[in-house]
Amino acid sequence: MTFPTGPVKVPDVVARIAAGRGVEPVWVNELGGVTFAVGTGFAAAVEYVKVHPDEHADLLAAEVPRLRWARRFTAVPEVLGSGPGWLHTAALAGRTAVDPRWVDAADVAARAIGTGLRHLHDALPVADCPFGRPSWVPADAPEPDRLVVCHGDACAPNTLMTDDGTFAGHVDLGDLGVADRWADLAIATMSLDWNYPTDGPDGFAAVLLDAYGVTADTERMAYYRRAWD
Asked: Aminoglycoside phosphotransferase domain location, by residue (predicted)?
């Protein structure tokens, strides 16, 4: 996922939802999906509309019930509307952990990501979760260290932070499901090297894991990174 680098056409559904308000493309994913801020810009948007191409529309459909369920327990966007290939949500306070504000303060971002994942894993009740495992987690995965409701795509951009550097919430929960907590932690730590300058052979992974409250389980991390790839 990246920030847009060129002009992006505003789809009709986004223009309709905006109803004359400002619209700004703020995020592009590897599937060709685009997230648009509605309001006064990325940092002060009041709503977002995520649009996916037809061949990936099912991913947004899967996110709707997951957001509605998770919102009962933790900070995730409120669903305002949805349809084939689009999802309209209210904005959460905060900025993505890969906002330029945090690129030179990766230790702060890593700490917020770790704190946020621990909060998510503690808050979402496994026994009440109506969803299966994340789509990329193998059915024959090893016996879990701790079974939790995983984010499913715990890359750094999907954590939001307040301006004082604390965890604010999560976005992009379309693959939320029950799995070993290391399914999230493996991907979260791996994604740090994609988004921040490294600091030694482990980058900021140790900071993230310390904030979460665990030491690295290298075997589980390697397993889930292979499964993700």
From this structure: 136-223
